[in-house]
């Protein structure tokens, strides 16, 4: 673990009914303080002193932004709320899809509203606590980023052979599942083969993660296309619900942090890779950082115009998707 990768120490705030348990690069997790049973939550009318059942977790999205596995300064104002709103919207879209395959961890009802402290309202999700798999379930529908680099060298992406003649930004013949091992804080996630995921989580779970990831990706792509948006790639995280043993979709889903989104019209009509991949995600941050930092030591401060552009693009994606 390296010091510079740690989020600022000030991230943990006092939330009535909750205690801080973990801070990732972008999100802060809280567990119930003095957990209560599910029954007495509903009968308690004083929201300020209510405690959630012990199997709940509060996932709070901050305005922190990370790129190349580093948390950058300053944050993107409003980002935490935008990402939480988008995640919840996606969970909602996916819940009724027959081939969705797995349930999700979000609890979005009246009880949730009353258990989320005012201080983090809008950027917190009340969830079932899962035993997370140490696997980032990446699905790619298009060729770009690190995949494009590898393709140019070996005509593969994460070891998966692809047809010759593809260009940066091209659609793949079909979406591919390219899992990564979720490295502990401060280390880089590592691409792994499907066989390696079998070794890590067992054959049944490995297949379930792959199938659910591809299925959710396909469903989400169709929904995004209706909004004139291309879902180029994304990352899911799953866990096991310890009460039921059921594999459950966790984390954030299909946000601009966990996905690459492009404008479909620009992709269709653009003539250069830059024009084709007009993005609604943090590519703006990645591009600026790649051009202004050699990836050693502490990353430089993001300039105000990069912060503003990123915030505007995150807002635009949410508006496009949710108003389609
Ligand atoms: N329902 C859940 N139960 C337990 N852990 C979860 C759940 N959903 C997400 N997580 C974990 O919460 C963390 C979210 O914080 P994040 O900022 O993304 O951290 P990281 O830098 O570890 O990716 C992740 O480690 C993710 O695996
Ligand atoms: Mg994460």
Automatic annotation (TrEMBL):
What broad class of enzyme is this?
ligase
Domain SAICAR synthetase/ADE2 N-terminal, chain residue ranges per copy: 54-293
Q: What is its EC number?
A: 6.3.2.6
| UniProt keyword annotations, A-Z | ATP-binding, Ligase, Nucleotide-binding, Purine biosynthesis
InterPro entries from the UniProt entry: SAICAR_synt/ADE2_N, SAICAR_synth, SAICAR_synthetase_CS
Stored PROSITE patterns: SAICAR_SYNTHETASE_1, SAICAR_SYNTHETASE_2
Reaction(s) the record says it catalyses: 5-amino-1-(5-phospho-D-ribosyl)imidazole-4-carboxylate + L-aspartate + ATP = (2S)-2-[5-amino-1-(5-phospho-beta-D-ribosyl)imidazole-4-carboxamido]succinate + ADP + phosphate + 2 H(+)
What the entry lists under Gene3D superfamilies is as follows: ATP-grasp fold, B domain, Phosphorylase Kinase, domain 1
Q: In which pathway does it act?
A: Purine metabolism; IMP biosynthesis via de novo pathway; 5-amino-1-(5-phospho-D-ribosyl)imidazole-4-carboxamide from 5-amino-1-(5-phospho-D-ribosyl)imidazole-4-carboxylate: step 1/2
Q: Which domain of life is it from?
A: Bacteria
One Pfam annotation reads SAICAR_synt
- HAMAP family, per the entry: SAICAR_synth
Family, according to the entry, reads as follows: Belongs to the SAICAR synthetase family.
**Protein name, as recorded:** Phosphoribosylaminoimidazole-succinocarboxamide synthase
